[in-house]
Amino acid sequence: MEQILDLILHTEEFITGMIESNLTLTYVLLFLIIFSETGLVIFPFFPGDALLITVGIIAGAGSLNIWILVPLLIAAAILGNASNYFIGKYAGKRLMKVRSKIFQGYLDRTSEFYAKHGAKAVMYSRFFPIFRTYVPFVAGVTRMDFPAFMRYNIFGGTIWVLIFTWGMYMLGEIPFVKEHFHTIFLFIMFLTIVPFLLRFIKMLGKRLRNVTAETPKNG
User: Fold this and answer.
1) Cβ-based neighbours of 45, under 8 Å, separated by 6 or more
2) Number of domains in the chain
3) Alpha-carbon 131 to chain mean position
4) What are the DSSP calls for the chain, one per residue?
5) Domain of residue 102, residue span
6) Does residue 155 lie within any of the structural domains?
7) Which of 141, 79, 131 is nearest to 105 (CA)?
8) Closest CA to 199 of 102, 110, 131
9) Is residue 213 in a domain?
């Protein structure tokens, strides 16, 4: 648990430490993180955008091989979504019975997103934390046509990694980006955490309103 928190809160330091310890294991770990964040409904809090940006900048500094990194992360993103689709298809109805308000809240919002955008939601969701994890799951639950799912999955996963990892690899050579890396990273982390904070505040407000409504009024 401590290592997971360190990964989420101190992504750059965690990855840098892994590179110094074992470079090969670092590539394996990066694959597993992206696979889990996109492929397992219990890990929507894993770093996605922030991780891709971080490793892109680290690769720009020469500590990671971009020609290994990009194909590896694209494969992780595509395989993760495909795995999530099958989890939704074969176990989705049972999982949706889990009594978790947060889980159900995310699923409800994702279902609305999916209903609004249709098959393209598989591609669009790549750029939205939470939706990125739950859209392929919902696609599986609704038994979306798998070949169509994979077309959007492959395109979305490829574009997602290229924009954030390859893009930051190229931008990493710019002095401003190097000098303000920590500020940029913290900003991205903030954007990643915002959906969780908004959901928590919304749930807290709802509970407070319910408590207020149930409290007997004097006089």
Assistant:
1) 8, 196
2) 1
3) 8
4) -HHHHHHHHSHHHHHHHHHHH-HHHHHHHHHHHHHHHHH-TT-TTS-SHHHHHHHHHHHHTTSS-HHHHHHHHHHHHHHHHHHHHHHHHHHHHHHTT---HHHHHHHHHHHHHHHHHGGGHHHHGGGSTTHHHHHHHHHHHTT--HHHHHHHHHHHHHHHHIIIIIHHHHHTTSHHHHHTHHHHHHHHHHHHHHHHHHHHHHHHHHHHHHHHHHSPPP-
5) 2-201
6) yes
7) 131
8) 102
9) no
Cβ burial of 188 (10 Å; 0-12, 13-18, 19+) is buried
Q: What is the pLDDT of residue 16?
A: 82
- Look at residue 73 and tell me if it is in a domain: yes
Report the distance separating Cα 187 and Cα 209, nearest Å. Answer: 32
Is 217 inside any structural domain?
A: no
DSSP string, 176-209: HHHHTHHHHHHHHHHHHHHHHHHHHHHHHHHHHH
- Using alpha carbons only, how large is the chain's radius of gyration in Å? 19
Whether residue 174 contacts residue 103, with contact meaning beta carbons closer than 8 Å, is answered with: no
What pTM did the predictor assign?
A: 0.75
The predicted pLDDT at position 156 comes to 92
pLDDT score for 94: 78
Q: Characterize 5-44 residue by residue with b for buried, 16 or more Cβ atoms within 10 angstroms of its Cβ, and e for exposed.
A: eebbeebbebbbebbeeeeeebbeebbebbbbbbbbbebb
| Residues of the chain scoring pLDDT < 50 | 219
